[in-house]
From TrEMBL:
Alphabetically ordered keywords of this record: Endoplasmic reticulum, Gluconeogenesis, Hydrolase, Membrane, Transmembrane, Transmembrane helix
Pfam families attached to this UniProt entry: PAP2
Membrane topology type: Multi-pass membrane protein
GO biological process: gluconeogenesis; glucose 6-phosphate metabolic process
Name assigned to this protein: Glucose-6-phosphatase
Chain residues that bind substrate: 79, 161
Domain annotation Phosphatidic acid phosphatase type 2/haloperoxidase: ranges: 53-187
Subcellular location(s) per record: Endoplasmic reticulum membrane
The family this protein is said to belong to: Belongs to the glucose-6-phosphatase family.
Length: 339
């Protein structure tokens, strides 16, 4: 693996030097590829276009990110920003690379979570749009356009992760391929109409099962916190180490979102039937609500409290998008029509 890692470092150096003027664009792309963007941006946008597609997005995003966590624990992938120092292969010739505020993620590096979750969640949108265009136009060429844009987006997200030294090239390729496969498989089984008990069992089953796996591996002498120590050691700015990038943060996000999805469907089975104008209003208000929920500061100590509140935060996300905002808009527009 040394040769693969070394070539990845030189590729990152070349990418940084050749596209230095596009630094802000790469940072924007890596933020749009963040797994949480699937929950906070893609989910509400898709939901108000197609209810089933919106439910599929949050379903696929949660399960693919959870699987990404398990894969990372099993594969022990390095990250470029710490491997440069740990490998001691660059003592005589240091690569001319920089770190950024999004570089210092604390989980293992393989496969890339950004690439994997982006590929899986966006597959739902792209496949739905492609099918819609083909049904309306019967043009293979036109229906292929979303897939072309999809590939371009995955390449851009992958390059952004290499640019900021968060991943090696083979990690983003592995994440993208795995995400596409998961998107195809998971989008065929969207949990609409499932009872609340199903989501409750799935959410807490994944949470408990992952914690037991972590503790079991630790008792066998496998330290799953090794990546956190390396991130703290080699990150150039201490404040760039954030608890919301830790493995258990993604776990609590996924489990919270799944429980929230079940609660939202329990409170309002079938959702609200709204015309296009109220849907646009719902999207605007939902986006504003999720923006403020995401910005809520959480105490980082004790960590158990942080993870608990992080879980609750993502339980709330589907409630805002599927129940609270559409309910208020429906109530307002319904009264207006009656008057």
């Amino acid at each position: 693996m040394e040769a693969i890692y070394t070539q990845g470092i030189w590729m990152a150096e070349s990418l940084q030097q050749r596209t230095r003027t596009q630094e802000k664009l790469w940072i924007l792309v890596t933020h749009l590829g963040d797994p949480k963007a699937a929950f906070l941006l893609l989910f509400p946008f898709t939901y108000f276009l197609s209810r089933r597609a919106g439910v599929a997005v949050i379903w696929v995003a949660a399960l693919s990110e959870w699987l990404n966590l398990v894969f990372k624990w099993m594969l022990f992938g390095e990250r470029p920003f710490w491997w440069i120092g740990e490998s001691r292969l660059f003592v005589n010739k240091q690569p001319q690379v920089r770190q950024f505020s999004s570089t210092c993620e604390t989980g293992p590096g393989s496969p890339s979570g950004h690439a994997m979750v982006t590929a899986a969640a966006w597959w739902v949108v792209v496949s739905s749009l492609g099918s819609y265009l083909y049904t309306r136009t019967h043009s293979v060429l036109l229906s292929a356009v979303p897939y072309l844009l999809y590939v371009i987006m995955l390449v851009a997200v992958g390059l952004s992760r290499i640019f900021i030294l968060a991943h090696f090239p083979h990690q983003v390729v592995a994440g993208s391929i795995t995400g596409i496969i998961l998107g195809v498989i998971l989008s065929r089984r969207v949990p609409e109409g499932r009872p609340l008990l199903f989501f409750f069992g799935l959410s807490f089953g994944l949470l408990l099962g992952t914690v037991l796996l972590h503790d079991g591996l630790r008792k066998l002498g496998i330290n799953l916190s090794w990546s956190i120590a390396l991130a703290e050691k080699w990150c150039s700015h201490e404040e760039w180490i954030r608890l919301d990038t830790a493995p258990f943060s993604s776990l609590t996000r996924d489990c919270g979102a799944l429980l929230g999805l079940g609660l939202a469907q329990y409170w309002k089975p079938g959702g609200y039937s709204l015309p296009w104008a109220p849907r646009a209003l719902c999207l605007a208000f939902s986006s504003m609500g999720l923006y403020h929920v995401n910005r809520l500061p959480l105490p980082i100590q004790p960590q158990g409290l942080f993870y608990g509140l992080f879980f609750v935060k993502f339980v709330i996300v589907p409630q805002i998008v599927m129940v609270l905002v559409p309910g208020l808009v429906h109530l307002f527009t319904h009264k207006k029509r009656k008057d």
